[in-house]
Design a protein that fits this description.
The chain has 230 residues and is an alpha/beta fold. It contains ten helices and ten strands. The chain is globular. The structure holds 2'-deoxycytidine-5'-monophosphate.
């Protein structure tokens, strides 16, 4: 048993439902949910809008020079009962989920200076515990001392199908094969980059949700929290 409020770190591959389960767990426990992917996505949107990224390429030095101009915060939307991402005061929650950002976010997330700035922000946000944070390096770099670490994954085809459904439900005209390619490319970059590569922390619990329901996975995580929290 441990303290009453803990840090829950959820890492894993892209599009395997980390945010979904993290949100559900945060709601059940009255914890704060932080989607760190949204932070890297916001930096990417800034780069796209300011001519620092295009055609899959990123002007690293240009972006590093302007990092201090980028302010990212989460504001709680009372009506929707969830956190939304703000870039320099503007709600960018929708725009950061679209393909132009998805197609440029991996190279942005490999920039050491970008990661250092984001990690610092994330550590500040978790200072008082009682948070569920999802990302790629939360259990390994941001909060290596987190009480509960979960590493999530699912088969690439399953993940691509979920993202396809999500985007088409929003009325977007997208191609399944393009999404699958995007998922596979991001896996490769996330796992092979020099700075903070995606890897399962030694003390993280593995959760493969390819063949289980959202309810089953939520119960599984809540069960693990119960074992830890007094
Ligand atoms: O979880 P997501 O798909 O929204 O993440 C977007 C990108 O940001 C993804 O390519 C990996 C990167 N990322 C990261 O490098 N570190 C994190 N803590 C979170 C996301």
């Amino acid at each position: 048993m441990t303290a009453s409020k803990i840090i829950i770190a959820i890492d894993g591959h892209s599009s395997c439902g980390k945010s979904t389960v993290a949100k559900q767990v945060a709601k059940k426990l009255g914890y704060i949910f932080i989607d760190t992917g949204a932070m890297y996505r916001s930096v990417t949107l800034y780069a796209l809008r300011n001519g620092l990224a295009a055609d899959g390429k990123v002007d690293e030095q240009g972006l590093i020079q302007r990092l201090s101009e980028i302010e990212i915060e989460f504001r709680f939307n009372l009506e929707k009962q969830l956190n939304e991402t703000y870039l320099n005061g503007e709600n960018v929650e929708e725009e950061i989920r679209q393909l132009p950002v998805s197609n440029h976010v991996s190279p942005v997330a490999t920039i050491k200076e970008v990661r250092e700035a984001m990690v610092k922000l994330q550590q500040d946000m978790g200072r008082n515990k009682g948070i569920v944070m999802d990302g790629r390096d939360i259990g390994t770099v941001v909060f290596p001392e987190a009480e509960l670490k979960i590493f999530m994954t699912a088969r690439p085809e399953v993940r691509a199908q979920r993202r396809y459904d999500e985007l088409t439900e929003k009325g977007l005209d997208v191609d399944f094969n393009e999404i699958l390619k995007n998922v596979q490319e991001r896996d490769k970059i996330d796992s092979s980059r020099a700075v903070s590569p995606l890897r399962q922390a030694d003390d993280a619990l593995l959760l493969d949700n390819s063949d289980i329901t959202r309810e089953e996975q939520l119960d599984w995580v809540l069960g693990k929290v119960k074992e830890l929290v007094a």
